[in-house]
Each structure stands twice: as structure tokens, then as C-alpha cells.
Amino acid sequence: MPPPTQPPPPSPDDAEPSVAREMDDEDLVEELLVTVNSARAFAEFRRTQRKECANLLRWLQLVLPLLEELRDAAPRLTDDAYRRLALLGRALSAARRLLRSCNDGSKIYLALECETVLAKFRSVYEKMHSALDGLPYAELAISDEVKEQVELMNAQLMRSRKRTDTQDMELSMDIMVILQNNEEERNADRAILERLAKKLELQTLAELRAETKAIKKIINERNGQQADSTKQIIDLLNRFKEIAGIDEKNVLGDVSMPKSLDKCPSLLIPNDFLCPITLEIMTDPVIVASGQTYERRSIQKWLDSGERTCPKSRQPLAHLSLAPNYALKNLILQWCEKNMVELQKREPEPAAGEQEDNKRKEDIPSLVDGLSSIHPDVQRKAVKKLRMLSKESPENRQLIADGGGIPALIGLLASTDKKVQENTVTSLLNLSIDDKNKLLITRGGAIPLIIEILRHGSPEAQENSAATLFSLSMIDENKAAIGSLGGLSPLVELLRNGTARGKKDAATAIFNLVLTPQNKARATHAGVVPALIGVIDDKALGMVDEALSIFLLLSSHAACRAEIGTTAFVEKLVRLIKDGTPKNKECALSVLLELGTNSKPLLVHGLRFGLHEDLSKIAKNGTSRAQRKANSLITLARKL
């Protein structure tokens, strides 16, 4: 038997090519250290990405001892070690860019694109894991202690790549409601906007001014691309500024300047020339008691709305006098003349309108007194006028509340006159925009009476009762109170049989209430599951995503899941995954994943309808969140 043939030695062409080295070993390690330390310098992050940023910073901290030992030992790097460290460098640079974006980027963009941003975090985790997995510790003279630390971190990175995170469902639902509402603005929508502004920390002038600058940067970078997304961002910013009391129509133009400035966008306008409220060049600058300067028209509106603090410094104003800033006005005029900029000419405020507003405000005390009149006609006229006034301005709402209007209105909720009920509950809805009024309304015993109107009032009174319960439920303790007092049952009835507007109000209120665990069981007992299925089946209603969002919350509760988890419902989800809109698919996948994770037979049943192919398509072409859910379902299906 001939001896076995030995394989020929590898030719140079068969050998693995050497790694192209752009810098020497010491410079590479030093650059990694600089990147990590500069990334760790970011400390404050946007609320929507705060958790992921904290995780990433913790892992960067764990990488630091590895790099410090490499710097101190200065071993000669093999091609494999160099390649891995170069890959780690790219991952660390991506991490630094991501942390910077979450540190000073647009809060609105980061909230709208939270799934896309999360995908970027996962990409960083993937690159870090690939670089560190199989690192030749021995030849790099790395200590056992550091090796164990890095390997533990790498295992955490591996798990993080597979983690299915829990969204901030309340934030997502709020954004969905605001963006999908194409009808005339409602006060309930203002309440949602106020909650969004609070969550995104876009309430003060400084916060909104920084957000404006961040959005301008995004628009410049996009260079006309992604117009729909940009329009959404601008619209939300304008609405946040509106509820903050900032009178600013075109916040993203060249500081809302005249068209003459459009021809010279590179012109640098001194910051001192811009009113802190409108961000426009001042034409009539005045000094307030705090020493800050504002455009007269803007600060006067601020003061007329009942504010008694300096908008910029938030200091209480010792007096309300406005002193002309002649020195600054002359500087502005000289600068405009030198740069050939024509200042905007403003129309004076109509005196008649101001007089009419003042007269209305003077009427408020007598109208509040009229609520307690023994004459029904006086009550009807008073509550109708208060409904209108409470919608107009924060100052009116404050005057009504300070004048004892809330207890008087609560007393009228029990009226047998349907129109009085409707105007009363709508007035309370308007007043509930202000948080302190929410507490006064609930402590005054209004919730049971509002629930009674929700059961038996006119269609408009029922709609506004649902909107009021939603507004009041923004305070967590009220969620439990509304549920325990029987508020979910009539909301479910409105969702089932109300007007289109009533169904939308009911769905929004139910979503907010079932964020509290005990209300999940109450809603299920009240029949919310068949009511939501009816909403999904009514295609003309256009509320599929809202219904699925509520289903997702309910499916996290074992008792609710038992009622939701039927084969018929799974088949409905499958049809939406196959034929729904991209957002329908994303929401349906989320619910199916929650159900399938807890009940394998339900997932098996869904897969029988040829779902594999649809999951593969969505995993490649769906929205960012839908892709992750589809991939999770594919992984789960393979284990069955």
C-alpha cells in the first residue's frame, strides 16, 4: 500500500493576505483610547435613548482597562489582532457619533425615529462583539482579570443584540394620535401635546431654542430629502412652541426674517439682536424688570397671558414696566443698514380687540357666580360662555379656577339638562389642560359624575367626557381612581357604539388607563376585547393601529392574554401581517410575538397560513421595528 500523499505546501496565492496597516500599533491603541475617552465625555442624553446610552457608556468603561493594558504592554500586534482592534475602532467611532447625537440631537427626531436609532445601537453592539470575540488575549499580554471582564461584557453584548426591548408605549401612542389626527384641533390633543412636551423636555424657551437649532441642522443635512419626515418634525416643533406660549409661525426659516435675507443665508445675525421668544430680529426692543431684552409685542403677549416671570431666566418680575432699549435699537438699525437688511414692519394690535378681551375677562367672576344661580337660563348662558372662555387662553383658565369656577362646574355635572351637562363637562375638559386644575377637578369629586355623563349624556357630551377622563388620567393616581370607579365599562361601550370621534376619544382614554396593571383586567372584564376586534374590522374607521396598541398592552397580562389568545384572533393578525399597511404589520407582529412567546400552539397555528414567507419579506423590507419583530418571530419559529 503506497504511503499517503502529502498535500503540497500552500502557495503564496493561497495564504491569507496580510492586513493593510494604516498606522503603527501604538498609534492605533492610542487612537482607541482617545475615542473611548471622548465618547465617555457625554453625560446627558435625550430621554428616549437614555437607557441605551447608559448601557453603551457602561460597556465603554469596561473596554478601557483592556486598552490601557495594551498601551502599557505595547505588544507587537499580529495581523488578526490588528484587524480586530481596527474593527473595534470603527465600532467605537460609531458609538461616539451615536452618543453625541443622543446628547445634543433633535429630541423630536429621536422620538419619531426611536426604532431607527435603536437599530444603530444594535449595529454598534454587533461590531463590538465581532471585534472582541476570539481576541488573542495571551499574545497581547492581557491579564486574566481584564480578560474575564471583557468576555463577560462580550456575552452581555451578545444578549443585547437579541433583546426585545419594551417600548415607551405611552409615548408611542401619544405621537401616533397627534400625527394621525387630521381633524380640527381638539383640547384633548392639546393635553397630549403637553404630556409629550413634558416627556421630551421641550417646555422652556431654552429647550425649544436648542431644539430649533438641532432641527435646522437636520434640514441642512437632509438637503431636501425625506420631506414627509421633515414636515412632521417641523409641525411638532411649531405645536410645542404654540402650547409654550411662543408666537412664532415660521420657526425654521432663516430666523423668520424678511425675504431680503433669503438671498444671503450665510449672513451671521448677532444673537443679541434676536428676541429670545420669537428668535426674530427685534424692531422695538424693551427691557423687563429682570434686565433681559425682548421684542415689545412678544413680551407684552407673554405678560397678557398671565405670566409674571422672565421667559428666559424664569425669575419673578418685580414689576411689569417695559423700558425701551434705545441703545440696542440703534445698533440693530446700523447693522441692518450696513448689511442691506430691511426690517419687518409690524401692524399695530387692534385696540378694539384688546378692549373686547379685557371685557370678557372682567365678565368671568360674574359668569362663575351665574353657575350657582337659581334661574336655569342664567346657568345655561353662564356655562356656555365659560366653555368658550376656558378654551381661549391660560389666563382665562386661571381666572376661572381662582374665582371658584371648578367647584361650581362640578356641581352642574348632575344637571338634568343635557346641554348644560355637555357645556359643563367640556368646560372642565378645557380647564384640565392645566395640571393644577386636574387635581382640583378630581379632588372635587368630579370623576363619578363625568362617568355618569359618559353613560347617559348626549353624543358630544359622551365624547368630551371620554376626552376629559383621558386628560385627568395623565396623573397616575387618577388612572386607578377612574378604573375603580367604573370608568372603563362606559368607555368600552363608547368604543363599541359611539360616533367616530367618540370611538377615537374612547380608545385614547382606554389606552392610557390600561397602562396600569389592575385596569387591564377591568377592561377585559368590561368587554374591551370584542370591542377592539370590531374596531379592527371597521376599515373605514382607520383605527387599526390604535386597537393593536391596546391589544399589545393587554397581552402582557396573563388573564387578558387568555381571552385574547384565540386561533381566530391569530388569524386576524396573520391577515394584517400579510395585507395591512406597514404600521399595521408592525403592530400586528408585536402582538403576535407577545402571544407566541407565551403560547407556542398559537404561533404554530399562525405559521400554518404561510407566514414564513411574509416574515422573511418584512425582515428585509419592513419598518425598523417590524424587521426586529419579524426576526424574533423567525427565531422563535425555528425553535418549535
Automatic annotation (TrEMBL):
A Pfam family this chain is assigned to: U-box
Pro residues: bias regions: 1-12
All copies of domain U-box, residue ranges: 268-342
ARM repeat windows: 404-446, 445-487
Listed GO biological process terms: protein ubiquitination
Record keywords: Coiled coil, Repeat, Transferase, Ubl conjugation pathway
UniProt keyword Hydrolase, yes or no: no
Source superkingdom: Eukaryota
Pathway assigned in UniProt: Protein modification; protein ubiquitination
A GO molecular-function annotation: ubiquitin protein ligase activity
Region entry Disordered, spans: 1-22
EC number: 2.3.2.27
InterPro entries registered for this protein in UniProt: Adaptor_Cbl_N_dom_sf, ARM-like, ARM-type_fold, ARM_PUB, Armadillo, PUB12-19-like_N, RING-Ubox_PUB, Ubox_domain
Coiled-coil annotated spans: 143-199
Reaction catalyzed: S-ubiquitinyl-[E2 ubiquitin-conjugating enzyme]-L-cysteine + [acceptor protein]-L-lysine = [E2 ubiquitin-conjugating enzyme]-L-cysteine + N(6)-ubiquitinyl-[acceptor protein]-L-lysine
Name used for this protein in its record: RING-type E3 ubiquitin transferase
Record organism: Urochloa decumbens
